[in-house]
Design goal:
With about 240 residues, the chain is α/β, with parallel strands linked by helices. The protein is built from 11 helices and 12 strands.
Length: about 240
C-alpha cells in the first residue's frame, strides 16, 4: 500500500514556521510566503499537503485565512487543513474554498456529535486529530491534556465514517527525535480507521519504517522540520512512499 507523504506548512501570523513540542514561544520561521512554499512542494512531486493554522488552534477560529486561501490557489493537489476548526460553519467554509480534508482535534473530544455529523455530510473529508502527551489526548493547541487515552478517543469514531486519524506525539513534534513508530502502529492496529503519523520525523529511515506498516493501517506521514532543515529530501521520500 502506498504511504502518503504530506509535507507540512504551519502558519503563525502569516509566516511559515515550525514549533518545538507545540510551544508557540519556540517557533522557528522558515519563510513569509506560504503559497510559494506550497508551490515548491508541488514542484517536488507532492500531491498532498498538510496545513495548520497555529494561531487558529489556540484561538478556536481561523486566524490565517488569507494564507490558506493563497496556498489552495497555488497548490494543485489535495490540501488537508487543521487548526481551530470547531464549528459547522468553518467546516463548510473551508470545503467551499477548495480544501480537500479538514482536521478536527479539540472538538473531537469536546463535541463528538459535531464530528459525527460532519463526517456523515462530508464523506472522506473529515480527519480526527489524536494528539498525545504520554498517551493522553492533548487539546486547544496542545495546551491542555485530558484524561482520555488516545485509543479510547479513536474508538469513539470507529463507526462515524471519518477518513483518517492524525496521530501526533506532541513531545516529539518539531524535535527531530524520530517518529513514534511503535505508538503509531499500535493505534493503527487498535482501530479500523486509517492512521496518519506525525511528530518528530527526522529522516528517510522514518519513512521506510512507516511504509512497512501499510497493512496495519498506516496511511501516511506528515513531515515538516526535516524538510525545511534539509535532513529529508521530499522527492526521495515521495518515491519511498509510492513504492510501499
Amino acid at each position: 500500500m502506498t504511504l502518503i507523504v504530506f509535507p507540512a506548512i504551519d502558519l503563525k501570523a502569516g509566516q511559515v514556521v515550525r514549533l518545538a513540542e507545540g510551544d508557540m514561544a519556540r517557533a522557528t520561521i522558515y519563510g513569509d510566503d506560504p503559497a510559494h512554499q506550497a508551490q515548491l512542494f508541488a514542484e517536488a512531486g507532492a500531491q498532498h499537503l498538510h496545513v495548520v493554522d497555529l494561531d487558529g488552534a489556540f484561538a478556536g477560529e481561523s486566524r490565517n485565512g488569507d494564507a490558506v486561501r493563497a496556498i489552495v490557489e497555488r497548490f494543485p493537489g489535495h490540501v488537508q487543513l487543521g487548526g481551530g476548526i470547531r464549528t459547522r460553519e468553518s467546516v463548510e467554509r473551508w470545503f467551499d474554498l477548495g480544501v480537500a480534508r479538514v482536521v478536527i482535534g479539540t472538538a473531537a473530544l469536546e463535541d463528538p456529535a459535531f464530528v459525527r455529523a460532519a463526517a456523515a455530510d462530508f464523506p472522506g473529508g473529515i480527519v480526527v486529530a489524536v494528539d498525545a502527551r504520554d498517551g493522553f489526548v492533548a487539546t486547544k493547541g496542545w495546551a491542555d491534556v485530558s484524561d482520555v487515552t488516545v485509543v479510547d478517543l479513536a474508538r469513539r469514531f470507529e463507526d462515524a465514517g471519518v477518513a483518517a486519524l492524525l496521530f501526533t506525539d506532541v513531545g516529539r513534534d518539531g524535535m527531530l527525535k524520530g517518529c513514534n513508530i511503535e505508538a503509531t502502529v499500535d493505534l493503527a492496529r487498535a482501530v479500523t480507521i486509517p492512521v496518519i503519523a506525525s511528530g518528530g520525523v527526522k529522516g528517510l529511515a522514518d519513512i521506510h519504517l512507516l511504509a512497512l506498516h501499510g497493512r496495519d493501517g498506516v496511511e501516511g506521514v506528515i513531515t515538516g522540520r526535516a524538510l525545511y532543515d534539509g535532513r529529508l529530501d521530499l522527492a526521495t521520500a515521495l518515491s519511498v512512499g509510492a513504492a510501499a
